[in-house]
């Protein structure tokens, strides 16, 4: 008997592989950076905050309109392993993208264990539907929506690209124009088998139903997959396997490994217009770099 739980990992090793926090010696200061930089953006730029997109208190978003009509829309979905953070922590990139000519939206959602992964996905889709239907209010173009997210937000971004759900929200299939997904969890089966399931309560069927790896984009689109150099093999495989599957589908996929970053400060690269990740995102959004 091997004791393997997933691939060639026993339970202890699988838990380590699925732990992002275990890859850094410090954690709280980076979460504080998200909140601090996002607060600075709210004070510096025109914005609308806590805009409801659904009936529950968690279903709200913040947006920073573009300076000119017809702009691409950068939609960011925060991470936090589905159980922490908020839209208020998730607009640190606003100045970079607004100055480049885009609108910026940060979507909020209810957190686990109070909400299931399926409900979180539904809420994010409702938020994205609001963006599409209210693009003019953002000075945005609904045909130029770019979805981004980090960690659990990368997973949720992948579920926004998946086919088969848009009609339920009155949207055209495959309406997302491009995406940048950072350190995403695209296959939830190893997550289900790890200690992360203590707050997710996934079974095999719900993990499969909510895995972007099994629900690929509705159509080929430009896709950026990014992760940090020090991420675990488990996280790296998630990104590499999803990228390979999307490339086989016909997506134009670019993999970016940002030097000098870790799982948590990687999204902050969006604050630097010269960073490879930011440059690539601006390019696929059709903005001059």
Question: In terms of topology, how is this protein built?
Answer:
Blueprint: H1 11-17, H2 28-44, E1 48-52, E2 60-64, E3 71-77, H3 94-100, E4 103-107, H4 117-133, E5 140-150, H5 152-161, E6 178-182, H6 189-193, H7 197-200, H8 204-209, E7 222-227, H9 233-249, E8 252-257, H10 276-284
Parallel strand pairs: 3-4, 3-5, 5-6, 6-7, 7-8
Antiparallel strand pairs: 1-2, 2-4
Q: Give the overall shape.
A: globular
- Mind telling me the CATH class? Alpha Beta
How much of the sequence lies in strands comes to: 15-25%
- Return Rg in Å: 18 Å
CATH architecture: 3-Layer(aba) Sandwich
CATH topology: Rossmann fold
Strand order across the largest sheet? 1-2-4-3-5-6-7-8
Feature tags:
289 residues, alpha/beta, Rossmann fold, 8-stranded mixed sheet, 10 helices, 17% strand
Structure description:
This protein has 289 residues and is of the alpha/beta class. It has one domain (11-284): Rossmann fold (3-Layer(aba) Sandwich). The protein has helices at 11-17, 28-44, 94-100, 117-133, 152-161, 189-193, 197-200, 204-209, 233-249, 276-284, and strands at residues 48-52, 60-64, 71-77, 103-107, 140-150, 178-182, 222-227, 252-257. The chain has an 8-stranded mixed beta sheet, with helices on both faces. The chain starts with 10 loop residues before the first helix and ends in a 5-residue tail after the last helix.
